[in-house]
Structure formats: structure tokens, C-alpha cells
Amino acid sequence: MTPVLYIVIPCYNEQEVLPITAPMFLEKIRNLAAVGKISDESRVLFVNDGSKDRTWEIIKELSRQDPHYIGICQSRNRGHQNAVLAGLMEAKDRCDITISIDCDGQDDIDAMDQMVDEYLKGCDVVYGVRSSRRTDTFFKRFTAQSFYKFLAAMGAEVVYNHADYRLISSRVLQEFANFKEVNLFLRGLIPLVGFKSTTVSYSRAERIAGESHYPLKKMIGLAVDGITSLSVKPLRLITGFGLVVALISFIGVLWALITALCGKAVTGWASMTCIVCFVSGVQLICLGIIGEYIGKIYMETKARPRYIISERTWERD
Ligand code: UDP
Ligand code: MG
């Protein structure tokens, strides 16, 4: 039995690229089916993430043109990670393998052949890894590299240079469905599910049209989310730092006492001010980090739905 593949594609305000890239995904499915690697029941599944432009209309139009195109629509914009999750959860009971990929044509679609090959050889998860970032701007490349290094330093282990281009078997997705967290950081969570995995490298191209939705601000947000949902290392660092400061303070107290006892105490306004400023600054940062975790707990306890599907291009069964 040849496996059924669902290509899961999150789309947010992508009316410029969709008409260009959609036929590329379809062709990939046709080619893979033609050589007998996947079944002809395979589909291109678009997830409209509450776009404000004509994206959903385009998806509906595509699904009328060819039955290989299908789509779901989220009730509002919930962000890339939630859109991918919605697509994966929707696909998991209908197929054997999913490949998630962005719709902007930046990730090399041809790497899918190798991904499917690896699956057929027995891997349940295949991570797409960027081999070069030549086409990214220096700034994007630098921030992205720092992102992975920082994540690793903070104890959130992720596959280096892997974004959200990956093959996941439905077996892994069935298990992943039991991960109920609201704070999603898929590239950190999928490795936690386990199963046999491998990587496939590809070169990353420029966006075909439209603009990136991941400016620096969102990258920092994603990094903070990734770290706080995968690791408690920052909290440990705070404790460690607190111990160091406490030790220095202890030495300071001894020094102050000795100076006072020797009758040499002078009115040290500058040193006093510096210490107060420094310690209160450090304390505020530490409180902020702890607050970040409390915020996470707060959102998790609410256990709100991670996605809400308002429309499908097919009748629900
Ligand atoms: N995306 C989404 N919801 C959002 C933002 C982005 O579904 O709120 C989709 C977007 O349509 C694209 C993918 O996520 O398919 C990656 O976004 P983008 O290409 O803007 O990010 P970059 O490649 O620049 O990191
Ligand atoms: Mg992109």
C-alpha cells in the first residue's frame, strides 16, 4: 500500500504567492504519485489562518478546480504554530504522512522526494534543515543563527537550522495529539514525541512574493516562547545568579562592619547608589523572567482551544 501524503500549508495574507506556489505543490503530489511513492489520494491541505485578504477565496477556488486541493479556515488569526497544528490534527486521521511547509516557496519543495524516501526507509519524522542562508539578508541570517544558539544555551534543544518544514507520520501525530499545551513551539515539541528521525538538507530561497510575517519582534517572541515552554534553565540561572550576588553581598557586609569598627566609615553616596541601582535592576529582570513563566502557567490553566476551524472546503464526515 502506497502511503497517503497530506502537505499542510499555513497561509496568512498570502494572496500574492498562493496562485504561484499552489500548482507547485500539486505537481509535486502528482509526480510522487506517478512514480508510485505515494497514493493518488494524497492532498494539498491549506490552512487559512484568518487572513484579511482574498487568501480563503483563492483556496476555495483552487479546491473547486482540482480535488487534490483542500482547505480549512481558522475562525481568526492565531499565528503560524497554531495554524500548522490545526492542519496536522485535521490530517492525522486521513493520511499516513504529513509534510508541513510554508506557502511562500522559500523552502525547496523538491526536498519532499527525499523526505518521502526516508519515510519509506522507516523514519517517522524527517526534519528539513537549511543548508545555506545565502539568500537571506545578513540581518535575518544573524538573528536566526543567534536564535538557535540562544535556545540551545537556555536548554531548549532544537534541530539546528530546522524551521517548520518536516515530515511527520500519522503514528507520531496520534501520540503528539496527547501533548495538550497551549504554548506551542512545534520544532521543540516534535522531538519530544520520539520515534526514529533523520534530517534532509535543502537550500532556502527568497520569498517568491509578499512579505515576511516574522520580523525581529516576532522572532524574539518565538524564542522566549520556545525557551519558557521547553526548559526551566532561566529559573535555575536566576537562582545561581542570586547565590553569587548573595556571596558578594556577604563580603560587602563584612567589609562594611570592619571599616565601621575601625572607625574609618565615610559617607559613601556613590557606592551606595550604584549598589542599589544594580541590585534593583537585576531583581526586576529576575521578576520579569519568573513572570514569564507565571504567564505561561496562567495561559495553560485556562486550557483554551488551540485552534477553531470555522470552514472546510469539504463536507465534514
Ligand atoms: N503564517 C500564518 N499565520 C501567521 C503568520 C504567518 O499562518 O500569523 C504563515 C505564512 O503564511 C507562511 C508561514 O506561516 O506560510 C511562514 O511565515 P513567513 O514566510 O512570513 O515567515 P518567514 O519565512 O519570513 O520566517
Ligand atoms: Mg517565509
Quickly describe the structure:
The chain is an alpha/beta fold.
Structural class: alpha/beta
Number of strands: 8
Instruction: Give me the side-by-side strand order of the main sheet.
Output: 7-5-6-4-1-2-3-8
Number of helices: 10
User: Architecture of the largest domain, CATH level 2?
Assistant: Alpha-Beta Complex
- Identify the bound ligands: uridine-5'-diphosphate, magnesium ion
Distance between the termini: 24 Å
Provide structural commentary.
- The chain is α/β, with parallel strands linked by helices and 317 residues long.
- The protein has two domains: 237 residues, Spore Coat Polysaccharide Biosynthesis Protein SpsA, Chain A, CATH 3.90.550.10; 70 residues.
- It is built from ten helices and eight strands.
- The chain has an eight-stranded mixed sheet with strand order 7-5-6-4-1-2-3-8, sandwiched between helices.
- Helix 5 runs parallel beside helix 8 and helix 9 packs antiparallel against helix 10.
- The longest helix is centred in the C-terminal third of the chain and has 34 residues.
- The mean pLDDT is 87.
- Bound molecules: uridine-5'-diphosphate and magnesium ion (MG).
- The site of uridine-5'-diphosphate has 16 residues, from strand 1 and helix 3.
- The site of magnesium ion has 5 residues, from loops.
